[in-house]
Amino acid sequence: MEVNVKNMIKQKETNRFFLRFTEKAAPVFFLLCAAISVLTTIGIILTLLVETTAFFSRVSFWEFISGTEWWPFGENPTYGVLPLIAGTMLITAIAMMVALPIGLASAIFLSEFASEQTRKIVKPVLEVLAGIPTIVYGFFALTFVTPVLNTFIQDLPVFNALSPGIVVGVMVIPMVASLSEDALRSVPNSMREAALAMGSTRLEVAMKVVLPAALSGIIASFVLGISRAIGETMIVAVAAGSTPKLTWDVTESIQTMTGYIVQVSLGDASYGSTAYYSIYAVGMTLFIFTFMMNILSQYISRRFKEDY
Amino acid sequence: MNLVDKQTVQSSMTKRLVKNRLANSLFFLAAAFGIVVLAILLYRIYSEGMGYLDWNFLTSFASRFPEEAGIKAAIVGSLWLMAVTAPVSLLLGVGTAIYLEEYAKENKVTRFIRMNISNLAGVPSVVFGLLGLTVFVRLMEMGRSIMAGGLTMSLLILPIIVVSSQEAIRAIPKEQYEASFAMGATRWQTVLRVVLPAAIPGILTGGILALSRAIGETAPLLMIGALSFIAYLPENVWSGFTVLPIQIFNWTGRPQEEFHLVASSGIIVLLIVLLLMNSIAVLIRNKFSK
Lengths: 308, 290
Prior knowledge:
Strand order of the largest sheet of chain A: 1-2
Order of helices and strands of chain B: HHHHHHHHHHH
Order of helices and strands of chain A: HHEEHHHHHHHHHH
Distance between the termini of chain A: 66 Å
Number of strands of chain B: 0
Structural class of chain A: mainly alpha
CATH architecture of the largest domain in chain A: Orthogonal Bundle
CATH superfamily of the largest domain in chain A: MetI-like
Structural class of chain B: mainly alpha
Largest interface: A-B, 83 and 87 residues
Shape of chain A: flat
Number of domains of chain A: 2
CATH class of the largest domain in chain A: Mainly Alpha
Number of helices of chain B: 11
CATH class of the largest domain in chain B: Mainly Alpha
Number of helices of chain A: 12
CATH topology of the largest domain in chain B: MetI-like fold
CATH architecture of the largest domain in chain B: Orthogonal Bundle
Number of domains of chain B: 2
Helix content of chain A: over 70%
Distance between the termini of chain B: 64 Å
Number of strands of chain A: 2
Largest sheet of chain B: none
Strand content of chain B: under 5%
Radius of gyration of chain A: 26 Å
Largest sheet of chain A: 2 strands, antiparallel
Oligomer: heterodimer
């Protein structure tokens, strides 16, 4: 077989231009992809800023952050965000009372006590629990947890803070458990062995050696859990009600920031009305809260990280 | 003289061992709590939802009457949404991951992009809904369409895809790069012919898991105005639409007890879809991990 070298060289020549082009174009294309994620953040911040500014041209900033009544519909609308923040805090507090102890205890069990077989069962179950859509949790809160609570608490209204709070807690458990477990497992085995060799029980090893060593990671996971609970939407939209209230009574119907945004988007306010702009002001508040939590969590895990 | 009093050691030893036992069972209970909740949840939904779950339910539109209500429009809507979200989010996510792992120099810009992605992962989904409502629905005038919803969802799951793709790329052994470069391949040729083929199983696994998150997500789509009551199927990406979780939300919100049963049936369908997607992801992972 004859090989036509001249032709091959010629073909190579035309290919080379194409090759060189893709060689140069590829990184540009990938950089553009990466730029989209940055643009998303900029888009979020700009959207919130612009529309929140429109909101504050109609409602005074001071009224917004210090007002104790939130009633945007009807004749005399009032825009005091404190009841929504209080509702969010209430849900978050209940959720954390469920999620932090149970999540951390699960993590300690998985990392310090469980046998390999038990781990193989419990870990996937936690992953499944983490993968269940929040609307399903919301349905569960409304149709199961609330009626069950009703048998213990007389006259519990259909919509209350307690039931979605507990369910948000359940939703956060897998996250706290898996992040805390990562932190616990990153403590080197030699430390455990040293403590065991000194005659410690497993509990003492866990509590006095491993837990303190992994504390920064655990607290970071707690903070992330709080952030997640603050931003949780569907569970509270379904089961917490829509009456913004400045209360610490867990049996009352309340409304969270996320719950309000959903209520408005379901069609309770027309485009361009003050109520419409108010969801951006509330969204901004929500964004600031969760953003600070995320930054705090990153700071804790970086600043107090112990290297072994 | 005895330095160690056996009596004291004995009594404190028992106490410590009992404490250890007690703690062990307490921690076990905590871990079992999740299993119990999952079991109750699944049992409740199964026992309530099976009654309405039949062929009619899958093939009829939403209705005012619980017996006639169906989930056809929602299933088709969810599929349409995935048809937009899957290509967009995978292209952007994998592209970002390749940039960060293969091209980016370790400088301020790169660090900023990394930090930005991890922060984006922590932004609540309603806030993405606000972004989608303002930018896609209003500013770009896409209306309350599948396109607007799909793009919003793509941005929402982008961080998950980026992180899992990065891990997949990082798992490729250094030798494969060196072999490729030694044969005279350029960076781009290496990415296309060595990195991508090797990373595809990991990318797909992470991608499917991220998409299953998008299938179950409700809030952002409520924000951009996906409808909850439509009696037609979407014709193209500019049509109005509904999805499974929104249909479930709508039924959950109704006061009639029957609709809660219908909602349970809807949840069974949604969970089966999720189960299928996750099984595929696990299958891919197991097939290629050898």
